[in-house]
Amino acid sequence: MRPRVSTETQQPRSSRRRAPIVITIGVVLLLMIAFFVFAGIYADIMWFDQLGFLNVLTTEWIARIVLFLIGFVAMALPVWASIMIAYRSRPVYAKLNSQLDRYQEVFEPLRRLAMYGIPAVLGIFAGVSAAARWDVALTWLNRTPFGEVDPQFGLDVGFFVFELPFYRSVVGFASAVVLLSALLVIATNYLYGAIRISGREIVIAKAARIQIAVTAGLYLLLQGVSIWLDQYAAVTESGGLITGAAYTEVHATIPGRQILAAIAVGVAILFFITAAIGRWRLPLVGTALLVVAALLIGSLYPWVVQRFQVVPSQLQLESEYIQRNIDLTRQAYGVDDIEEIDYEAKTDAEPGALRADAETTASIRLMDPAVIARSFRQLEQYRQYYQFPSDLDVDRYQLGGDSQDTIVAVRDVNLDGLGDAGTWYNSHIVYTHGYGLVAAAGNQRSADGQPVFLQSGIPSTGALGDFEPRVYFGENSPAYSIVGAPEGADPVELDYPAGSNSAEQTQTTFEGDGGPKLDNAFTKLVYALKFQSEQIFLSDAVTDESQILYDRSPIERVSKVAPYLTLDSDTYPSVVDGRLVWIVDGYTLTDQFPYSNKVSMSEAIADSEGVAPALAFDEINYIRNSVKATVDAYDGTVKLYAWDEQDPILQTWQKIFPTSLSPMSEMSGDLMSHVRYPEDLFKVQRAVLGRYHVDQASAFYSREDAWKTPEDPTQPQASTLLQPPYYLTMQMPGQDAPSYSLYSTFIPESRGDESRNVLRGYLAVDSDAGSEAGKKAAGYGKLRLLSLPEDDNVPGPGQVQNTFNSDPSVGRELNILKQGQSDVINGNLLTLPVGGGLLYVQPVYVQSTGGTSYPLLQKVLVAFGDQIAFQDTLDEALNVLFGGDSGAAAGDNSVEPGETPTEPTDPGAEPTEPTQSTELQELLNRAKQALADKQQALADGDWTAYGEADAELAEIISELVVLAGDDGAATDGSTGGSTNGTGGTGGTGGGSSGGSGG
In whole angstroms, what is the distance from residue 880 CA to residue 918 CA? Predict the structure, then answer.
């Protein structure tokens, strides 16, 4: 009889048969994951190598790997050693309670795994943390002195920017290692009986005592070093009044931290003594003393000094430190050499007042980049697979020997417009690029209000000359495109539509070097995995001559090859040396500059053109526009130029990446003529200057002259978005000639719910770098601040917009424009310091409510002082505003639609003849002024002036009647007016004589 086999012996055999399958599946999964990771790494190597910045990638990777290994070893080895020492020195015959016995039984099978696994896991976390600080480590190793010392410790600023963050990171890391080791040592010794709790007594074995005491001593020693380093951090910490060490920090906090550091070191020594003699009383008393000292010296004493010594005499005691904050903040943000000009702004619009500003008025930009984007789309998009951005850019070109401000945009490809035709082949093989740069004159418009295009059409033609128009790398380019083909193959990429028939198209083949080559099956497989598209591997359209273009946004490309830069939020296209390139501004930043005020960069640059993120943790207190970068729109080539070669942070990164930056001397003259002062830098500086235009401690402390940027008056009433700065060609007081500039305005800072929207400051910076190769223009970057007197009530943008909106005559004309289902759109409200005062200019657009409509410039609003004008052209409006002859010609003479002007409007041209409506508005303005003169003369008792004003008023009335077309009435009125005026004058004269005789 065959013996019966139990199921207990069959189960293990079944498990053994499944084990190889499970292992095989696991290995396969691990290999797949590893290959996916490898594919991403290999793709990055190919991308950086093709672009010529492989050294940036390898340097960062090597730094990360080395720091990971250092972090791993620095954590895992001490933790493992601590556990191993605690285990090997455990008591052999320790008396354990039943509960610990059970813990040991459970833990013992896992002991070896835990002894190596716990340090390994902690080491991995520590390595990842250390690798993330690769930039701190590299800048410390390659640090460059600033050549400036802080006023408190006399140390070079580079110590606070490069060294202190590194030292504090190292001490913090070491403290974490020691603390985790101590916790694991205590746990191990307790588990194996080296630490026993017997009633109210804690019994510690000698070996455990030594290990715990030494570990505690090391931890306190590190805390002493940490507290000592904290004293230096006082000059970069934000306090209640300023950033930096104020009176309380200097006289209480910093000395207190020095004392606490000494106490911590002393207590550490007591723990080391305990390791030798075995008495815990002294270190425990010392630890209690340290806690009490931390409360008294670290918290209570500074509070007492602040409350009872500083607060009663704050201005006197804090003046020295406030002055430090003012001086170093202005230096850190690059506004210490600002030219401040007292500006007595006129408010009377006198005839001929703009004669000295003829060049500025000829360049006033009426085309609002945020409004006319729809015009660009309707007039220049041509096909549904093209697109323009929602906010256009401002640039300038030399045309006819003069500088012309232009509104520019790239016609980029839009795959969403393909609809049902958006197959993989069309999306990635055919529709690969945009086409052309469209440019419109900033100061001109056609007869019907359209933009006047300087460069337009498909193929691209115009005044900007010949250049490569294809845009393979743009702000809205597809995620990836596959381009290139074998020699002699038929082109498949859509170049541009060749006629009105959508079937007529021209094709092209990319001929540049813009991306990694797909010249073998392995590379195709790598990118098929990267983009999760099997078509890259299977498609016959992908040949050995194909290239794959990806990461095509200019800002994305620059940020990858220069990870140490913070990039400006706005990049703009320019035609440079026959190529279409994107120009990107890069900044070097820190938040560790001593005594410099900290601001959130995201909040500082937020306005109606760009909203700050909901959570922004990006405080800075030092900024430099250190790099100008270009990205070729055709082949994606990235070039980095060291723009601020004196910046120590940039010099440090140049040591780290020695081959990635080119000197400014390699910039061509054509490129120099298109770079500009960056907008984000200017926004940060204006945010700082709202308070730090005051350079004296007493005035700063009282905040009696604090300013802010006004809210954008063109936004809805409930909006709190700030008015953005604007690029304009203008001549500031203190300049010999107009230059391409960027400006913003200031109004008084709000006090509670009340805010006076009157102008207090006008900030402008010279943004013209010149056109000499490799050399900045002497005036580039010069900041000028016009300060208006406190007693001058020059209206701010909000007041002016309110005046425009509430004026009855303007309202009537706007109502006429709104008829026929049309919307009226107010363009950007510009402010210009001309005519000895401040001129406000606002274009007014009309747009039909139809789906395919676009805005047309129909009217222009202008204001000077409390006088306004509303006319069809800027030329007419200025003449009305300034008594019939402004003295200068604006540049908005009508041009026929489709006509491209070859030269900018001559600023010296004679003003155009005023129309009847222009004359009417002019006479009404004169009448208003005459009435005001009569009232003033009556109040002053000046009868001569009263008679002259009365005569002037009578003459104006007669001219109004003549303009109305009633010649007979005009004659009578004129005569009567003259008679009355004469009589009035005579009476006035008699009154004067009588007065004198009396």
Answer: 6
Q: Is the peptide bond before 459 cis (omega within 30 degrees of 0)?
A: yes
Please state, in angstroms and rounded to a whole number, the distance separating the CA atoms of residues 949 and 937: 8
- d(C-alpha 342, C-alpha 706), whole Å: 16
Q: State both tokens at 100.
A: 């610990």
Q: What are the residue ranges in the chain where pLDDT is below 70?
A: 1-17, 92-101, 103-105, 199, 499-504, 612-617, 751-755, 820, 851, 893-925, 928, 943, 958-998
907-908-910-912 Cα dihedral, nearest 10 degrees: 0
DSSP of 492-527: -EEEEE-SSSTT-EEEE---S--S-B--SHHHHHHH
Report which DSSP code applies to 772.
Answer: S
Alpha carbon of 581 to those of 407, 571, 584: distances in Å?
16, 10, 10
Q: How buried is residue 26: exposed, middle or buried, by Cβ count under 10 Å (0-12/13-18/19+)?
A: exposed
Which residues are registered as beta bridge partners of 743? 726, 764
**Cβ 437 vs Cβ 455: under 8 Å:** yes
What pLDDT does residue 265 have? Answer: 96
At residue 15, the pLDDT reads: 60
User: Quick one: which H or E segment has residue 708?
Assistant: strand 707-708
Write the burial class of residue 812 (CB in 10 Å: 0-12 exposed, 13-18 middle, 19+ buried). exposed
Q: Would you state the structure tokens that stand for residue 429, as one six-digit string?
A: 């093989």
- Do the Cβ atoms of 965 and 909 come closer than 8 Å? no
And the tokens for 927? 């009448």
Contact 163/133 with Cβ under 8 angstroms? no
Decide: 453 and 380 in contact? Cβ < 8 Å: yes
CA angle, 759 as apex, 753 and 762 as ends, to 5°? 125
Q: 115 to each of 109, 200, 444, 882, how far by Cα in Å?
A: 11, 31, 78, 88
- Measured between alpha carbons, how far is 984 from 987 in angstroms, rounded to an integer? 5
The structure's pTM equals 0.86
Residue 588's closest CA among 635, 545, 622?
622
Q: How far apart are CA 735 and CA 339, in angstroms?
A: 11
In angstroms, rounded to a whole number, what is the distance separating the alpha carbons of residues 392 and 407? Answer: 7
Distances 38 to 45, 360, 525, 535, 588 between C-alpha atoms, Å:
10, 59, 12, 20, 32
pLDDT number for residue 376: 94
- Radius of gyration of the chain, Cα coordinates, nearest whole angstrom: 38
Q: What local confidence, expressed as pLDDT, does residue 919 receive? A: 59
- Rounded-to-integer distance, Cα 67 and Cα 243, Å: 32
Q: How many CA atoms are closer than 13 Å to the CA of 15, on its beta-carbon side? A: 6
The whole-angstrom separation of Cα 722 and Cα 708 is 9
Please give the torsion angle defined by the CA atoms of residues 980, 982, 986 and 992, in that order, rounded to the nearest 10 degrees.
Answer: 90
Return d(Cα 865, Cα 762) in angstroms, integer: 15
The burial of 902, by beta-carbon neighbours within 10 Å (0-12 exposed, 13-18 middle, 19 or more buried), is given as exposed
Q: Would you call 575 helix, strand, or coil by DSSP?
A: strand
Q: How many helices (H) and strands (E) does the chain have?
A: 30, 34
d(CA 638, CA 182): 51
Closest CA to 857 of 269, 367, 354: 367
Instruction: Note the Cα 950 to chain centre separation in Å.
Output: 57
Tokens standing for residue 285: 């008393």
Rounded CA-CA distance 816/611 in Å is 34
Distance between alpha carbon 48 and the CA centroid of its chain, in Å? 26
Tell me how far apart the alpha carbons of residues 244 and 942 are, in angstroms, rounded to a whole number: 60
Interatomic CA distance for residues 721 and 713, integer angstroms:
9
